[in-house]
Amino acid sequence: MTETKKISRRELVKQGGLALSVLALPFPLTAFSNFNDMTDNKNFDVIIVGGSYAGLSAAMALGRALRNVLIIDSGLPCNRQTPHSHNFITQDGEKPSVIAEKAKKEVLKYDTVKFLTDLAVSGTKTDKGFEIVTQSGKLFSAKKLIFATGLKDKMLKIDGFSECWGITVIHCPYCHGYEVKHQKTGILANGYAAFHLARLIRNWTKDLTVFTNGKSELTQEQSDEIKRHNISIVEKEISSLKHKNGVVEEIIFSDNSTFELEAIYSRPPFEQHCKIPELLGCELTEQGLIKVDAFQKTTVDNIFACGDSTNPVRAVSYAVSTGNNTGVFLNNAMTEEDFLE
């Protein structure tokens, strides 16, 4: 008898789902529409700068509305180091890159949507709309723009921090907290941010320590409240994080003392991943996010924005939601304009 290899239920579901998804495609994968510089038109109804979750979601709504759309994406999403995405129904536990690639294939089934792997480097307002120039020197024009370019996290100047970022140095308990529940956990923050995280993360683990990386900026009341819940506050300066392939093992302080732990929450500062919206006149909020109204319109006519670049809620599900809404809102605006011509 040949020994049958056991397969987990999760793996069975995953393999079965992949097989079914291939069978369900209306045409082969080779039909997906990457931009062809030799044959494709360079004038579009809409250019979407940023082709991750929000941008792809907006493109799907617009593609289904028969709009000619170009997505320009450089291939550097902020969560590229994160091993798994969570809290997104139907995709819980999947790799972010797998979700994005599946989304791209689905979106590019719509023949009015094109995808260009390149970096948008400048934008100009014209009489007919906008022009976007890419790093490779290509120039495209469109009546409308959507920026779904996300945010760039500024890594703390602590050796090992960037290597662990998104793996065991994490920013969101709703995205990653379940996977490190009840583990020995640190909060790398100071002031109100540390107080806020201490209150929040205690829901997932009681084995908590706050690391302020220098003199505490917590108020006395905040410190007392944190300590009342048996959460220690360590004010030593941090030199590095000891880790193996991004899996943190201990904090090493500047005095060479160490502290073992399994996960760290941190919310480093960020900046806009793309400067073009600002250069075109789009206002930013005090937090550094692109200012949009309830319809995802920026402060510049005919420019929309969605995803992480517009809101502090940084989750795949949120990006997809705002992207879809943006595509719908923009198409509604265009149909009204077309009807009045």
What are its keywords?
2 domains; 341 residues; 28% helix; FAD/NAD(P)-binding domain; disordered N terminus; 5-stranded parallel sheet; 7-stranded mixed sheet; single chain; alpha/beta
In short:
The chain is 28% helix and 24% strand.
Sequence of secondary-structure elements: HEHEHEEEEEHEHEHEHEEEEEEHEH
Poorly predicted residue ranges: 1-32
Mass-distribution shape? elongated
Distance between the termini: 75 Å
CATH architecture of the largest domain: 3-Layer(bba) Sandwich
Largest sheet: 7 strands, mixed
Instruction: Look at the structure and give the CATH class of the largest domain.
Output: Alpha Beta
Number of beta-strand segments: 17
Residue fraction in strands: 15-25%
Q: Output the number of helix runs.
A: 9
Supply the number of structural domains.
Answer: 2
According to CATH, the fold-level topology of the largest domain is: FAD/NAD(P)-binding domain
> What structural category arises from helix and sheet content?
alpha/beta
Radius of gyration of CA atoms, rounded to a whole number: 23 Å
Proportion in helices: 25-40%
Query: What name goes with the CATH superfamily of the largest domain?
Result: FAD/NAD(P)-binding domain
Average pLDDT rating: 90
